[in-house]
Amino acid sequence: MIALRRLFLTAVGLFLALPLIVVAGVSVNQRQSLAFPPQGFSLSWYGQIFTNPEWRNALIASLTLAAFSALLALAIALPLAWFLWRRIAPWANIFQLLGIAPFTLPPVITALGLLTFWATTGFYGQSWTAVISHGIFFVTLPLVTLSLGFSAIDRSLVEAAATMGADDKTVFRTVVLPLILPYLVSGYAFAFVLSLNEYIVAYMTVGFTMETLPIKIFNALRYGYTPTMASVTVLFLGVAAIVFGLVARFGDLPKLLGAMSEDR
Amino acid sequence: MRREPPQRPADYGPLLFPAGMLTLFFVVPFATMIAVSFFQREQGGFYTPAFVFDNYARFLSLFFGRVLAFSLFLAVAVAVACVVIGVPFTYLLSRSKRNIQIVWLVALLSILSLSEVMIGFAWSTLFSRTAGLTNLFVWLGLMEQAQALTPSFGAVMTAMTYQALPYTVLVLYPALVRLDPTLTEAARTLGASPIRAFFTVVVPALRNTILATLIMVFIFALGCYLLPQLLGRPQHWTLSVLITDQAIYQSNMPFAAAMAVFLVLVSLALVGLALYTGRQKEAK
């Protein structure tokens, strides 16, 4: 029985790992050929990401977009989650629903909605529109982690602070903020990593004026193969693994995921 | 601090920015899209405000019907495949040690966040002639010669299952972690084999969860837009691909918007159904 269980887990693990192993393999090929097992060993394709101006610009564009849009998502989610926790206002739940909707619906819908919106308002193609678009698209993640964070706060703590004369602002800064900080960080981390990898919303809003890394890979795929695609994929996978590894190290990942779907 | 209804207008302060942003950049774009779906298309990619049903009338074409039928079929197939693999997998995962669980969860999250472009690229590499799986088969003596496995339906299906599996596991995870372990223990004590206990106790206990997960994965698969393009032939295109194609390459925004509105309605109906089935278990 234990053998059967091992076998099944290994099979699933292999299915999940196989494409990534091959990609990691082709990323270290010496020449620009799609060969596996790799012929020779070279890390130059990883260097390409940083030295080739096209790939470097795409990397910078992606990182900038992810950093700012995750910040915007957090700026929208934090006051909303705080309000919903602090006040009894059932109608305000509609905004929570709006915050979760973009992530639950097929992404092409949000992408097309934003495309028609930016085209109608005349801002189509401006790079800041991508930040807003991603900020809205990924607001779900910090919203869910923060709702969870707030629900974990012991209300008597806050009560004590209030009885001793602290107003909302002081309570928020001195009691609530330190308690929800881990959820704030993990919400940002989730939004950041997903924004880094997002294709369709970025493509539909700024695809013709700006290249993020996923857009760059897609465009490059049409003209053939270059091993840099493989090295970028490995790099992104590494970034995601490190970020989620850190979330797991400093937070409670099973709990975070156990409640994430509960809210959906 | 007790929860209390807002008393002064200033109490609504925190709501101002989130409500404004979500309204301006989600509700308004959504409404714009619905409006555009009724607009009249002009030559050269422009459109003028109007109130016509032409864009919706195009749904009645055979071509659209075929794409819709294929999209639904593909999404169902992917959802079933993911649940068939995902349920036993998540069950075993939820019964393993905490440290092992965390390692798996980090790996699953990393793959889930991986860009669809990269997943498409990875599978096209694995299915290629020069670096692909068939080389392994040749080496093992199972095949005469290495060959490319793309474009094909199998490639699209495999890659979409790959993309949706981590999502499936993470949707199932909370329910399975909380599943009372004494349930299976009781079955085991009464002499059922572990596999029998799984199928006769775990699966029936989770019937509604599994159904709700099927629907969620179905919607997730419905949103897939790049893999059919990268790994399939034009007849493997889904509704999402068609929407992108009409909006960007054919510059027919009104038709794309009409299809998107249709997709929203289908998804919302299904989300409603998923929530309803999810609730059922509490009602019991």
From TrEMBL, chain A:
<keyword id="KW-1003">Cell membrane</keyword>
<feature type="transmembrane region" description="Helical">
    <location>
        <begin position="174"/>
        <end position="194"/>
    </location>
</feature>
<keyword id="KW-0812">Transmembrane</keyword>
<dbReference type="GO" id="GO:0005886">
    <property type="term" value="C:plasma membrane"/>
</dbReference>
<comment type="similarity">
    <text>Belongs to the binding-protein-dependent transport system permease family.</text>
</comment>
<feature type="transmembrane region" description="Helical">
    <location>
        <begin position="131"/>
        <end position="153"/>
    </location>
</feature>
<feature type="transmembrane region" description="Helical">
    <location>
        <begin position="200"/>
        <end position="218"/>
    </location>
</feature>
<dbReference type="InterPro" id="IPR000515">
    <property type="entry name" value="MetI-like"/>
</dbReference>
<keyword id="KW-0472">Membrane</keyword>
<feature type="transmembrane region" description="Helical">
    <location>
        <begin position="59"/>
        <end position="85"/>
    </location>
</feature>
<keyword id="KW-0997">Cell inner membrane</keyword>
<protein>
    <submittedName>
        <fullName>Putative spermidine/putrescine transport system permease protein</fullName>
    </submittedName>
</protein>
<dbReference type="GO" id="GO:0055085">
    <property type="term" value="P:transmembrane transport"/>
</dbReference>
<feature type="transmembrane region" description="Helical">
    <location>
        <begin position="230"/>
        <end position="251"/>
    </location>
</feature>
<keyword id="KW-0813">Transport</keyword>
<feature type="transmembrane region" description="Helical">
    <location>
        <begin position="97"/>
        <end position="119"/>
    </location>
</feature>
<dbReference type="InterPro" id="IPR035906">
    <property type="entry name" value="MetI-like_sf"/>
</dbReference>
<dbReference type="Pfam" id="PF00528">
    <property type="entry name" value="BPD_transp_1"/>
</dbReference>
<keyword id="KW-1133">Transmembrane helix</keyword>
<feature type="domain" description="ABC transmembrane type-1">
    <location>
        <begin position="59"/>
        <end position="248"/>
    </location>
</feature>
UniProtKB/TrEMBL annotation, chain B:
<dbReference type="GO" id="GO:0005886">
    <property type="term" value="C:plasma membrane"/>
</dbReference>
<protein>
    <submittedName>
        <fullName>Putative spermidine/putrescine transport system permease protein</fullName>
    </submittedName>
</protein>
<feature type="domain" description="ABC transmembrane type-1">
    <location>
        <begin position="68"/>
        <end position="274"/>
    </location>
</feature>
<keyword id="KW-0813">Transport</keyword>
<dbReference type="InterPro" id="IPR035906">
    <property type="entry name" value="MetI-like_sf"/>
</dbReference>
<keyword id="KW-1003">Cell membrane</keyword>
<feature type="transmembrane region" description="Helical">
    <location>
        <begin position="12"/>
        <end position="39"/>
    </location>
</feature>
<dbReference type="InterPro" id="IPR000515">
    <property type="entry name" value="MetI-like"/>
</dbReference>
<feature type="transmembrane region" description="Helical">
    <location>
        <begin position="197"/>
        <end position="228"/>
    </location>
</feature>
<keyword id="KW-1133">Transmembrane helix</keyword>
<feature type="transmembrane region" description="Helical">
    <location>
        <begin position="255"/>
        <end position="276"/>
    </location>
</feature>
<keyword id="KW-0812">Transmembrane</keyword>
<dbReference type="Pfam" id="PF00528">
    <property type="entry name" value="BPD_transp_1"/>
</dbReference>
<comment type="similarity">
    <text>Belongs to the binding-protein-dependent transport system permease family. CysTW subfamily.</text>
</comment>
<feature type="transmembrane region" description="Helical">
    <location>
        <begin position="102"/>
        <end position="123"/>
    </location>
</feature>
<dbReference type="GO" id="GO:0055085">
    <property type="term" value="P:transmembrane transport"/>
</dbReference>
<keyword id="KW-0472">Membrane</keyword>
<feature type="transmembrane region" description="Helical">
    <location>
        <begin position="153"/>
        <end position="176"/>
    </location>
</feature>
<feature type="transmembrane region" description="Helical">
    <location>
        <begin position="59"/>
        <end position="90"/>
    </location>
</feature>
